[in-house]
What does this fold into?
Amino acid sequence: MKIQGLRGTRDFYPELMQELNYIFSKWREVSKKYGYQEFDGPLLEPLELWTLKSGNEIPEQTYRFKDKSDSDIAVRPELTPTLARMIAAKQKELTKPIKWFSIGRFWRYEAPQSGRLREFFQFNVDCLGTDSMKADTEVIAMAIEVMIAFGCTKDDFYIRISNRKLINAIFNEMDIKPESIKELSRLIDKSDKIGEKEFESGLKGLGLKDAQIKKLKNFLSLKSLDKIKDLDENGKSGLRELKELLSYLESYEFSEYVELDLSIMRGFDYYTSTVFEVFDRKKELRAIAGGGRYDDLVKDFGGEPCAGIGFGMGDVVLGLFLKNLGKFPSSVNGIDYFIAPVSEDVYPKAVEIGSILRKKYSVCIDVTGRSLSKLMDYANSIKAKSLVIVGKKDLDKKEVTVRQMDTGKEEKLKLDKLGNL
Amino acid sequence: MKIQGLRGTRDFYPELMQELNYIFSKWREVSKKYGYQEFDGPLLEPLELWTLKSGNEIPEQTYRFKDKSDSDIAVRPELTPTLARMIAAKQKELTKPIKWFSIGRFWRYEAPQSGRLREFFQFNVDCLGTDSMKADTEVIAMAIEVMIAFGCTKDDFYIRISNRKLINAIFNEMDIKPESIKELSRLIDKSDKIGEKEFESGLKGLGLKDAQIKKLKNFLSLKSLDKIKDLDENGKSGLRELKELLSYLESYEFSEYVELDLSIMRGFDYYTSTVFEVFDRKKELRAIAGGGRYDDLVKDFGGEPCAGIGFGMGDVVLGLFLKNLGKFPSSVNGIDYFIAPVSEDVYPKAVEIGSILRKKYSVCIDVTGRSLSKLMDYANSIKAKSLVIVGKKDLDKKEVTVRQMDTGKEEKLKLDKLGNL
It folds into this structure.
């Protein structure tokens, strides 16, 4: 009986695995250029990491179970709580600012659809130990650099930026009831998708008056910070942060990638200031990446207060995006040499030749004993660049035949010249 | 409240992550040299993959649960069933022999102890589509090459090899009752650990007579295949395979790494012929790697019959082994340049300099605005090789100060020479 893999999962056959490794290589390349160090945590975590700070949407989608010792286990749906736990555990030993990145697997129990799978990989970039907007800028710059590293331009993607303090001040000023803020935030977050009419009726459903709705919509549509006034202290601080952030981004010459968008909320409750998302310009896909500042999180996990900013970028939406734009490198890495022993008695010599070539090249030796014509087909199918035919007659003359697979050109090569290849 | 990670898991802080990445890099390097292609499967799988072929020890240690749709889920404890499932699903499209490797995470609910954790990484190498002992040899050669790539010699490790057909023939010839074979295999597998006395009393407990025990012990202690006789057809085939394998290993010049050890059983039921394990010479640790031939597995998973051989090498025992031998590279990769802006107004210039240097180097820019002396401490702590001090006076002369962190030597560098660094 054939068994299928679970719904919403992928089998990474070599071709798909190469795409994934290509994505990983760019994530690592940019992180290292910025001096970030790689870390990771366990894939299973105590469920407590997510229930400790409740009111979060995540536990609903979390794969969870009890292990044999009756402990509540979560298959991690995101990395940030693990990061906060790890920082809290070694806070005194770690030199701040902590600049870390991670590439890991995650699971969420969601309805699989385009851009959304149950198992995915996520790149996380985090800078902790400072509340300077320079850190926010650096992290956003890295998100932009990653997209550029994939060959994308400002016509392909952009970053939408907001600040939670600012939006909270607006809610405050509009006298939104505290118990409605969560629902309202969600509604704003999806306002782009649901259309104006549904958005308005949603706002009415939350008890907003016409004047409030007008004011809110007006605010959310702002493309510049200049006209914002009448803010509380918290709001003023958010406004100042956002202005600083936008000005620092100019130093990176990344302003053209960035747009103010006060409707960006981000689902996670732990964000306290900057929030941002990476989107495709065509707005056909979900967010490619998203993140923000979480200044209370390490404290919430039992550590000393430690400001932090970070983002996550999943492989699924990104993969779709790159595929749509034709940005994946087309060539599958082939093998340098395929070694074909034409008879059983020359196999030891084929192995010896393989060992010499492996010092520099990727080498595949036949293990089947099939005929030369079948081996040529096989060498083609595995995209071997050259074929080394090891035959008795050639060996008597201390040579082998080397065939270029693309041109079909064959040449004799003396055995003592193999090391020069 | 501080939350701990789960028992038997590791938090990969950057230093430990570097060790792990070092292990991964060697695993990948050898696999590519041998022309093997990387693949992977999902981390969660239908539990069915393990219960389908029962009588296996694995399900007992498997993390399992029901998801929201009441499906039985396993957190994978090993890769081979996933591989068999993937081969069975695309058998017609895949060119044989299939030469694949994988590096992934796995979970087993075991009592954590030295060399055994609940979460671990495992390197898997598999060659499917041929029953030639050349494939077994290649795969074993790769296990040896990996150990050599870590800087280990024949004095550090060795491979113990056996063949299931051969041992089954001996059981057969000794008239061991079929229902005792499983228990007997287990007992033999741990005979090394438990000592002679306990081994003998275990054999008696399984109903073996003194003559049988003597014969079995005699057989298990054989260091050469020459004296083995009186085998059934299956046993003769196993003997022939083992002889062939040992002779092919001579071609690789790897004979000195290999020992015949007929007490090697391997826990998994799916092995049908060759079985082998990599051990430290000092026999202080568990097996570093283990594998074998599983010619019926793809068929068991609903595919056409497809012979296969492979091994798994975990990171935990290997890591202990390398650490004990001092084989981990000592230096932690540092950062090439740390850029220290001495005042707020030069920050944009610091960013600009960072962008130029990042074309070739890893560059960390200060995001805290701390004093120069504090920044020097920080640059030291992150192992920066050079410090670029960006100050107003220098900039007026279109230059910066570059300090070598090891010698403390400082030099002025013109801004237009930055690209030449």
Summary: Chain A touches chain B through 92 residues (CB under 8 Å).
